[in-house]
Design goal:
With 157 residues, the protein is mainly α. The protein has six helices and no strands.
Length: 157
């Protein structure tokens, strides 16, 4: 939802010629999303079994799910950045870079590390979830670099 809001609001501000407003609205969207997802990350890490018991009473699933939910807890912030910033970039008309970064993250980082963790290190499901975290971490870093670079401010739509 915050990504969609960032897309719309950044586009509106840029359409009105207010670059500072566009930058400020992207930052506000990101901060609001980070507050919510950061809180959820803390809850996922602190009380994973409570969340899992909503869906199952199977102790084996809860045991495995606890580890996975704790990995997801660390994924919340990079995932948040990896959704909201590309939303802001799309609002500015900077759509190609977001596609390239997504392809890099999903097809090279996530699949590459998933293969490595599963086949080479025999980490099982935990390895796949760590690969997901690495995908979001790489993507969020690249999106931040792109956004801070400011090229999006000069794109004509």
């Amino acid at each position: 939802g915050f990504a969609t809001a960032a897309t719309a609001i950044v586009g509106q501000y840029l359409g009105a010629g207010d670059i500072q407003g566009a930058q400020r609205s992207a930052a506000i969207s990101l901060l609001m999303a980070m507050a919510i997802m950061g809180t959820m990350g803390l809850l996922f890490f602190s009380f994973p079994a409570a969340f899992l018991k909503i869906f199952t009473s199977d102790s084996d699933i809860i045991k495995m799910g606890t580890t996975l939910l704790r990995i997801v807890a660390f994924t919340q912030m990079p995932e948040c950045i990896g959704m909201v910033i590309p939303g802001a970039l799309r609002g500015a008309g900077d759509t190609k870079v977001a596609v390239y970064i997504t392809i890099l993250g999903m097809w090279i980082v996530r699949i590459g590390f998933t293969w490595y963790f599963l086949k080479a290190l025999n980490m099982g499901l935990v390895g796949a979830w760590i690969a997901m975290f690495l995908d979001w971490a790489v993507r969020s870093a690249l999106y931040i670099i792109r956004f801070k670079g400011g090229q999006w401010k000069n794109i004509k739509v």
